[in-house]
Amino acid sequence: MSLVLDPAAQDLLFREARTANTFTDEPVTDEQVQAIYDLVKYGPTAFNQTPLRVVLVRSAEARERLVTHMAEGNQAKTAAAPLVAILAADNEFHEELPSLLPHFPQAKDLFFSERPARESAASLNAALQAAYFIVGVRAAGLAAGPMTGYDAAGIQKEFLDDDHTPLMVVNIGKPGEDAWFPRSPRLSFEDVVTTV
Ligand SMILES: Cc1cc2nc3c(=O)[nH]c(=O)nc-3n(C[C@H](O)[C@H](O)[C@H](O)COP(=O)(O)O)c2cc1C
To answer: How far apart, in Å, are the Cα atoms of 180 and each of 15, 27, 71, 79, 143?
Structure first.
């Protein structure tokens, strides 16, 4: 009663949405990924810094290279998913800041002239955007399989550069047979929320 979002949409995005470990062969198109991005780009980030960057791993050759950097338990599903995305944080996001924050262009030099400050901001805000991205995948009627079980330095060297830090690799597609592990419990409201 307290939620205004249509109950079917609540189920699609959260209650019935699961982390997929197997996928059908149905392709995930660039149009779908663009629709997902064009929805989730509105999710908030500090100073509107939007530091998330996405590498779509489409070619068989790139997929093979990626799989070698995944933890053993993540290799088969990363090899088989219709689409795999590397989500990364851009530690040089401040270059875009004056155009992303036109009412406060001074923010770039005031807050982000030092690399450590940028890395810490990029890590938090790109992670937020990664979460929006996963929900966006679900909004497209697809399932996401986010993973951090990988050799981060290897992925950074192979697919990114010194300015881009890998955050997670996400398998994307329609869930296949036996796609889910058993649903694990969640903490209750009482466990998590305190009021002062
Ligand atoms: C950031 C992140 C990293 C994860 N890394 C892995 C991973 O390396 N391998 C794996 O099998 N699952 C991984 N998972 C999947 C989680 O275990 C799964 O999303 C969680 O248990 C909830 O599962 P459910 O959506 O089916 O309820 C990861 C999930 C997230 C969000």
So the answer is: 14, 20, 19, 17, 11
* Ligand 1 atom with least separation from CA of 147: 5
Question: Rounded to two decimals, what is the model's pTM?
Answer: 0.98
Q: How many angstroms separate the most distant Cα atoms in the chain?
A: 54
Tokens of 25: 């062969």
Q: Does residue 83 sit in helix, strand or coil?
A: strand
- The CA 71 to ligand 1 mean position distance, Å, reads 13
Please tell me the distance between residue 114's alpha carbon and the centre of ligand 1 in angstroms: 33
Residues 134-170: tens digit of each pLDDT: 999 999 999 999 999 999 999 999 999 999 999 999 9
Compute the distance from residue 19 Cα to the ligand 1 centre, in Å.
Answer: 6
